[in-house]
Design a protein that fits this description.
107 residues; mainly alpha; three-stranded antiparallel β-sheet; 35% helix
């Protein structure tokens, strides 16, 4: 019986083309340096608050959905941030935190 290689069936994919230099540079810039502390007046991404909240991303998502963690702030089509003051309030009392209820729309 002939081997797959003899039959012309190659299982190994060719190596990917080299990454353009500018894309590699952008990827290096995206890596965040760990923050020393959170500031109340700033907006933070999940990657920036993760070391401070000490829960998994999925647990955080569930807490946000239940109103037991700070609400998300949309910063664009796909961007999500969290208010520093709310995150700090949650860190001070995770079990007693309750997200502020949005005010009803007045017309």
């Amino acid at each position: 019986m002939a081997s797959p290689k003899e039959l012309g069936l190659h299982c190994k994919a060719p190596p990917p083309p080299p990454m353009p230099e500018n894309r590699e540079k952008k990827m290096r810039q995206r890596r965040l340096q760990p923050l020393e502390k959170l500031l109340a007046g700033a907006l933070y991404s999940w990657a920036e608050i993760e070391p401070f909240v000490r829960v998994s991303r999925e647990t955080w998502r569930i807490l946000v959905k239940d109103g037991s963690a700070p609400p998300k702030v949309a910063t664009g089509a796909r961007g999500i941030k969290y208010r520093g003051a709310e995150v700090l309030r949650w860190i001070d009392d995770p079990t007693g935190y309750e997200a502020a209820k949005p005010s009803p729309n007045r017309r």
